[in-house]
TrEMBL record:
Pfam families assigned to the protein according to its UniProt record, in alphabetical order: Hydrolase
Keywords attached to this entry: Hydrolase, Magnesium, Metal-binding
Species of origin: Pseudonocardia dioxanivorans (strain ATCC 55486 / DSM 44775 / JCM 13855 / CB1190)
GO molecular function, one term: phosphatase activity
Lineage per the UniProt record: Bacteria, Bacillati, Actinomycetota, Actinomycetes, Pseudonocardiales
Entries under Gene3D superfamilies matching the protein: 1.10.150.400, HAD superfamily/HAD-like
PANTHER family: GLYCERALDEHYDE 3-PHOSPHATE PHOSPHATASE (PTHR46470:SF2), N-ACYLNEURAMINATE-9-PHOSPHATASE (PTHR46470)
Name of the protein in question: Haloacid dehalogenase domain protein hydrolase
Length: 248
């Protein structure tokens, strides 16, 4: 990694996305299979014997719908509301005890995916800190609330490197909404114009940050089209230099 001069990022805040930028999504098929299996077990225990495939169909349909709504409008569907919608699609009553029980596998299924750290994450983040930047983790959540996301951060020794964390489940809105980036600036005690956001989604991370008045760097290992004027990196060890150039 190319060395960075002492404190060139003093007064800047670097906001970094989590999923797909610092950690992998893991085995999503394993995650989905475990959630479906646990839902079927719980529903059976509560006396609901549904036709084969009905639980899977409802879970996947609601997951796809909530993800689409979040990415396009910045809506933050509450996890309880997601489970309620799944039960509605299954044609089942919204029993409070049942919902409470299903919330556990719904919010913890991501752990079965075994998300892993993306190479270069630690060294890049510490290089940014050494360059004087204040670091904020800025993450959308869907089925995985902030409490479970923090477990994943702890597992990968990412918690201590960040000065602040901003999760959409806490804000009540999600990227690409400008309010998510305003929450970053507020948490860091700075202006939006002094925030550089790094993420892997052109829609939620790059356009969201730019529309909010921030600067942006695209983590782009797949070589997707990059908006004009935005620096793109293909590996995380390029992040410190790209951020420095973006702030210059």
């Amino acid at each position: 990694m190319t060395p960075v001069a002492a404190d060139p990022l003093e007064g800047w805040v670097v906001s970094v996305d989590l999923w797909g930028t610092l950690i992998t999504y893991g085995d999503r098929e394993a995650e989905a299979a475990w959630r479906i299996r646990e839902f079927e077990t719980v529903l059976t225990e509560f006396g609901h014997d549904l036709p084969d495939g009905k639980v899977r169909e409802a879970i996947l349909a609601v997951r796809a719908d909530t993800q689409r709504r979040q990415r396009t409008t910045g809506e933050q569907p509450p996890v309880r509301g997601q489970v309620e919608q799944m039960l509605t699609v299954m044609g089942l009553p919204l029993d409070t005890r049942l919902i409470d029980t299903l919330l556990v596998p719904h919010t913890h299924a991501v752990l079965r995916a075994c998300p892993d750290i993306i190479p270069g994450a630690h060294s890049a983040l510490w290089a940014l800190r050494q360059a004087g930047a204040r670091l904020v983790l800025t993450s959308n959540t869907l089925a995985t609330p902030a409490s479970v996301s923090r477990l994943i951060l702890d597992d990968h020794d990412l918690t201590t490197v960040f000065d602040e964390t901003v999760f959409s489940s806490d804000v009540g809105l999600a990227k690409p909404r400008w309010e998510m980036f305003a929450a970053v600036a507020t948490a860091a005690g700075t202006d939006l114009s002094r925030v550089v956001h790094v993420g892997n989604s052109v829609t939620t991370d790059i356009h969201g940050a730019l529309n909010a008045g921030c600067r942006a760097v695209l983590f782009n290992p797949g070589g997707k089209p990059c908006p004009a004027g935005v620096r793109a990196i293909t590996s995380l060890d390029q992040m410190p230099i790209a951020v420095l150039a973006t702030c210059s």
